[in-house]
Automatic annotation (TrEMBL):
It comes from Deinandra increscens subsp. villosa. The keyword DNA repair does not apply. Pfam families: TAXi_C, TAXi_N. PANTHER family: ASPARTYL PROTEASE-RELATED (PTHR47965), OS01G0937200 PROTEIN (PTHR47965:SF63). One of its GO terms (molecular function) is aspartic-type endopeptidase activity. Residues 1-21 form the signal peptide. Coiled coil: none annotated. This is Peptidase A1 domain-containing protein. Residues 41-400 form the Peptidase A1 domain. The lineage of its organism: Eukaryota, Viridiplantae, Streptophyta, Embryophyta, Tracheophyta. PROSITE patterns: PEPTIDASE_A1. Belongs to the peptidase A1 family.
Length: 420
């Protein structure tokens, strides 16, 4: 066959074999880590394909993705299976952006000056151990799933996938990382965040996060517009259950996601908090951390609303624990966050009470002290089994409140791979 014909044949083949290539949404399985109660994704951003495949910590605040890898300086192209990676030069826009997030608590990059512009020196940060090391940006390949909203299917450019920019990191940075995690997947507002680098998919700048509350099932992240279906209902597109509120980017260098709330109430009674407080959504803490004045007000309000349930000795780090067996089928009163848009994010018992053993269920909020940078930092326990849509283009957050009351949960996506 003539070379051009072969080429056309191959192109035809790659298009015709892959019905999923017309979809714009990618899907990534999420695992809850037993040792930290925080969440992680497999190294491949797909179903974990071998026992022992490492994980990346899912971080809503990291400026860029990183993983333990060694950058070899090879001038000739080498096989992808050899882990060939290409250093990013310092004058690339993504390098400049990565450097603009330099963390002043990390080592100075001065010692890298001798390499000139051939490398892009950065300091990846480990948010669990609070340490950072000098390393450099590189490109790697990721072979993502695409989805019709119901199952994962093959992504673009199989079997190699597409390039994206991340940082390598020395092994010493992951030394005390629990749960087989050897890096960080950035889902922040940075231009280097993983979802924002996937322009090759032609996907919309938005992602959905549905964190699992159990370690036995997989939660799910979607990159792109959707639709999103769970196995519990063939006809319920989860986009239809969302309420929206504006999402604030504090400054052009701010990485985290914030919403504003007007009011917190328990059983209809307002909790005395400053008017218009910011709430940061964080995947780095398991339980919501409140500034002391807000913490004390919430504790007082919740205590009053649960006056009929016997209290038991509080178990650290919590300040209010109830006798679990006395809670009853109706559960505890909801904690309602009235958002800036007037819509209510309801925190029901599954997201407010943590069973700590010995028959105690504790209000799963912690006192951060009076001098915290952010007055309210919502943690993962409060976000689990809630469907959250981060719409970066329109700067708004879609939220569902607990999916459990709708008879579904974040572990109900059908991860059976569909070949065509
Ligand atoms: C994919 O995205 C493009 C542009 O955002 C849109 O026009 C198109 O309809 C999308 N395709 C599908 C299958 O959703
Ligand atoms: C970095 O190196 C330059 C020149 O070697 C020096 O002038 C500068 O003070 C150094 N900066 C830091 C933060 O060490
Ligand atoms: C790490 O992976 C190994 C091999 O799959 C497994 O036996 C071990 O339990 C894992 N550790 C954690 C904390 O997940
Ligand atoms: C999951 O998807 C596969 C492939 O489409 C299908 O055969 C199976 O019935 C689905 N499972 C559930 C629980 O919906």
């Amino acid at each position: 066959m003539h070379l051009v014909n072969i080429l056309f044949f191959l192109i035809f083949l790659s298009f015709s074999q892959n019905a999923y290539s017309r979809y714009n949404t990618s899907v990534i399985p999420i695992t809850k880590d037993e040792s930290t109660s925080l969440h992680k994704v497999a190294y491949s951003f797909r179903l974990r394909s071998w026992d022992g495949e490492p994980y990346l910590f899912l971080d809503l605040e990291a400026p860029f993705t990183w993983k333990d890898c060694i950058l070899k300086h090879i001038d000739i192209a080498c096989g992808l299976e050899e882990g060939c990676r290409f250093p990013v030069r310092c004058d690339k826009p993504l390098c400049k952006e990565a450097k603009s997030y330099f963390n002043p608590t990390c080592p100075s990059l001065n010692i890298t000056a001798k390499y000139g512009c051939d490398i892009c020196a950065v300091t990846p940060f480990n948010p669990v151990t609070n340490t950072c090391k000098i390393s450099q940006m590189t490109t790697d390949l990721v072979n993502l799933y695409l989805t019709d909203g119901r199952n994962p299917g093959p992504g673009p450019n199989p079997p190699f996938g597409n390039e994206f920019v991340l940082s390598c990191a020395p092994k010493s940075l992951v030394a005390h990382f629990p749960g087989n995690m050897t890096g960080v997947a950035a889902f922040s507002w940075s231009g280097l965040a993983f979802p924002r680098q996937l322009s090759f998919l032609d996907i919309a700048p938005k992602f959905a996060l549905c964190l699992p509350s159990v370690t036995s099932g997989l939660g799910v992240a979607f990159l792109g517009d959707g639709p999103f279906y769970f196995t519990t209902s063939r006809s319920l597109d989860l986009r239809s259950v969302l309420s929206y509120t504006p999402m604030v980017r504090k400054s052009s260098k701010s990485l985290g996601y914030y919403i504003k709330i007007n009011r917190i109430s328990v059983k209809g009674a307002s909790v005395n908090i400053p008017k218009s407080s910011s709430v940061k959504l964080s995947s780095r803490v398991p339980y919501t951390v409140l500034r002391s004045d807000i913490y004390n007000a919430l504790l007082a309000g919740f205590s009053k609303a649960t006056v009929n349930i016997p209290k038991v000795t509080a178990v650290k780090p919590f300040g209010l624990c109830l006798k679990d067996s006395a809670i009853g089928t109706g559960g505890v009163p909801k904690i309602d966050l009235e958002t800036e848009s007037g819509k209510v994010w309801s925190i029901s018992g599954e997201n407010s009470m943590k069973r700590v053993g010995n028959g105690a269920a504790c209000l799963a909020f912690v006192d951060g002290g009076s001098r915290v940078a952010d007055a309210i930092v919502m943690g993962t326990f409060q976000m689990e089994d809630n469907f959250l849509l981060f719409d970066l283009g329109n700067q708004k957050l879609g939220f569902s409140s607990s999916l459990l009351s709708r008879g579904t949960s974040c572990s109900k996506f059908n991860f059976t791979e569909v070949a065509k």
